[in-house]
Design goal:
Shape: globular
Number of strands: 10
Protein name: Phosphoglycerate mutase-like protein
Organism: Macroventuria anomochaeta
Largest sheet: 8 strands, mixed
Low-confidence stretches: 1-18, 143-150, 404-472
Distance between the termini: 68 Å
Order of helices and strands: HEHEHEEEHHHHHHHEHEEEEHHHH
Structural class: alpha/beta
């Protein structure tokens, strides 16, 4: 009798699970194995290509063809309107995205008959062409040794730099000086002795980690004991999380804030399109994941969320419902979101695990609560970004003139903002220049001549570029 009751309970649980429908999903994915940052420009390795390809195969089995298939998504031939794929402008990240997509939607041989009766077969055995859109967040991040090098957010740079002034950082820097000095013989072909310190904890770890994976021999390899390798990783984790998130100074988590905005934007499009937008995929750097983990209180669930995620790791957000979907897309009150994470390449043998968000205990959170909590810090548009970052030039100039980003910047001692002061200064300078020119022409006997009278006259134009340099 006992076994019958147990069997009945299992049947009910299976039925409840089967009743759930996945309406859409958003995946944030780290790149695969790459060459070290210390030897920039970085490149995706063959191993890295294979890692993201296998991950793509897993998500094909989960969301395209398997039991958790997203409702209505095309099984074999991709329908581009159902998919949105993005990546920063970065060799490793863009290449990783393309490798992932090859696994997500593998080749399907198609033959097209033309009007003249001839047949044309798709190249590369039917390789499916899926565009990867580019985004500004994290451009060039895999060539940068410091998290905010790829960011133009002024306040985020300041916030991250505050970590270098903290007692935690200064104490660790001093306490680990001998440890890092002992490793100079291992890396001195690439890094100078003064670069081998906690200040460059991730760069040192990254260089040695890549060598451990790929090199048949490493200088002074006897120094790289398991204990030493573990300490290198632990220190790199501490260093990078300190730069990526701080609860009392969270502007350094701007990348996580932008990711939150992008997740909300795509999942809202899934809802407003009644499920026509089905799967959003973004490739990005570990820094973005670390920032996001801090913002949604995942370290309260596990301290593992304060460490650098492995190559090809994935963060997944599923939009699900237990409501009847046979008559149409459910109401927002019937929608929930589940967060899953897998450290490293996901597979059917090692699948992503669900974790509670926002310090809660449930593996799912209602759509309304999910949206409310993310909106507390999400950056969803340019004006929000400019205001939070304190930027007032370039694209941000439009918002600064409306009291946006400029309102966060300090005024001069006379109550004039830098933007207004700059305009006044420019006008004064122009008046002085014109006055001097008039005097010069009057005293020197020069006169103005129309360009029509100048034979061989040509126009010249020069474009000014801006390069942001951040201290590390």
């Amino acid at each position: 009798m006992k076994s019958v009751v147990a069997f009945s309970t299992l049947s009910l649980l299976a039925g409840a699970e089967a009743a759930e429908t996945v309406l859409g999903a958003y995946i944030f994915h780290r790149h695969g194995d790459r060459t070290p940052k210390a030897l920039a420009p970085t490149n995706l390795t063959t191993l890295g290509y294979e890692e993201v390809y296998r991950s793509g195969q897993y998500y094909n089995s989960r969301y395209i063809t398997g039991d958790n298939r997203i409702k209505g998504i095309n099984k074999e031939i991709v329908k581009l309107s159902q998919l949105s794929v993005s990546s920063p402008v970065d060799n490793v990240l863009q290449s990783s995205a393309m490798g992932f997509l090859q696994g997500l939607y593998p080749p399907v041989q198609t033959v097209q008959t033309l009007s003249n009766g001839s047949d044309v077969s798709a190249p590369l055995s039917g390789y499916q062409l899926i565009p990867v859109n580019t985004i500004a967040t994290g451009a060039g991040s895999e060539d940068s040794g410091w998290l905010q090098d790829a960011s133009s957010c002024a306040n985020a740079k300041t916030s991250s730099n505050n970590y270098f002034e903290s007692a935690e950082y200064q104490n660790t820097l001093k306490a680990t000086n001998d440890f890092y000095s002992s490793l100079v013989p291992v890396v001195n072909a690439t890094l100078t002795a003064d670069q081998v310190s906690f200040k460059n904890a991730y760069v040192v770890y990254d260089l040695i980690n890549v060598a451990e994976i790929h090199n048949s021999s490493i200088p002074s390899s006897d120094l790289l004991t398991n204990s030493t390798l573990h300490q290198l990783l632990t220190l790199a984790n501490t260093h990078e999380y300190g730069l990526a998130y701080n609860a009392s100074d969270d502007m350094r988590a701007i990348a996580g804030m932008q990711l939150a905005g992008e997740i909300l934007s795509y999942m809202n499009s899934t809802i407003t399109s009644k499920g026509a937008k089905k799967l959003g995929i973004q490739f990005g750097a570990y820094a973005t994941a670390l920032s996001f983990f801090g913002l949604v209180d995942l370290p309260k669930t596990s301290s593992d969320f304060t460490g650098v995620i492995d190559y090809a790791s994935s963060l997944v957000f599923e939009l699900v419902t237990d409501a009847d979907v046979s008559s149409g897309f459910p109401a927002t009150s019937d929608l929930s979101v589940r967060f899953l994470f897998h450290n490293g390449t996901a597979s059917n043998a090692s699948q992503p695990t669900a974790y509670p968000l926002f310090g809660g205990s449930s593996e799912t959170v209602s759509w309304n609560d999910f949206q409310t909590n993310l909106n507390k810090f999400a950056v969803s548009n340019s004006e929000q970004w400019c205001t939070k970052c304190g930027n007032s030039t370039g694209t941000c100039a439009a918002y600064a003139s409306n009291g946006g980003a400029a309102s966060t910047q300090q005024k001069s001692s006379h109550g004039i903002s830098p933007a207004i002061g700059g305009v006044i200064g420019a006008m004064v300078t122009l008046a002085v220049v014109l006055g001097s020119l008039a005097a010069f022409m009057l005293l020197g006997g020069f006169r103005l001549v129309s360009k029509k009278h100048l034979a061989g006259a040509g126009d010249a134009a020069a474009a000014n570029g801006e390069k942001v340099v951040a201290k590390a």
